[in-house]
Amino acid sequence: MNTAPARLPAGRFSIPFTNLKNSVLGLDFELSLVFVDNIFSKRLNRTYRGKNKSADVLSFPLSKKSGEIFIDLITAKKEMGKFQMPYRKFVTFLFIHGLLHLKGMKHGTTMERREKKLLNDASNYSRYRHRDL
């Protein structure tokens, strides 16, 4: 089992976590974002969901105005090919997916449309914010 740390690749495009969080959940929502490995992810998934495997993203509402998102960077790196996305874009997608679950959305067409829109917005924000002058 690979336990080497997985990292977001260096580069000039950052992921607009705060903007995405505020767009989906609002300014008053308190969010913890934690990057974990596949061992910790598997433990969380087994404890809270009864599934004995790692999960690329897990989200836990703590109250109406707070929650946590755990993104397993090792599992994400393994699964990004299924979604045909580069690593950084897939991590952004996982964050968006977790946000929408905290918002109360369930898997389905409506959630998928919202994910695509937010992912597109995040890409546009990154290009605009870091463009060469």
Task: Explain what you see.
This protein has 133 residues and is of the alpha+beta class. The protein has a single domain, classed as Collagenase (Catalytic Domain) (3-Layer(aba) Sandwich). It has helices at residues 17-25, 38-49, 73-79, 87-102, 109-129; strands spanning 30-36, 57-63, 66-72. The chain has a three-stranded mixed sheet. A hairpin with a 2-residue loop joins strand 2 (57-63) and strand 3 (66-72). Helix 1 (17-25) runs parallel beside helix 4 and helix 4 (87-102) packs across helix 5 (109-129). The longest helix is centred in the C-terminal third of the chain and has 21 residues, at 109-129. It is globular. The N and C termini lie far apart (44 Å). Mean pLDDT is 86; it is low at 128-133. Belongs to the endoribonuclease YbeY family.
Number of domains: 1
Count all strands and give the number.
Answer: 3
Strand content: 15-25%
Major sheet: 3 strands, mixed
What percentage of residues falls in helices of 4 or more residues? 40-55%
Name the CATH superfamily classification.
Answer: Metalloproteases ("zincins"), catalytic domain
Distance between the termini: 44 Å
- What are the secondary-structure elements, in order, as H or E? HEHEEHHH
Which fold name fills CATH's third level, the topology? Collagenase (Catalytic Domain)
Morphology: globular
Number of helices: 5
In terms of per-residue confidence, which ranges show pLDDT below 50 for 5 or more consecutive residues?
A: 128-133
Strand order of the largest sheet: 1-3-2
Briefly note the structural class of the backbone. alpha+beta
Radius of gyration: 15 Å
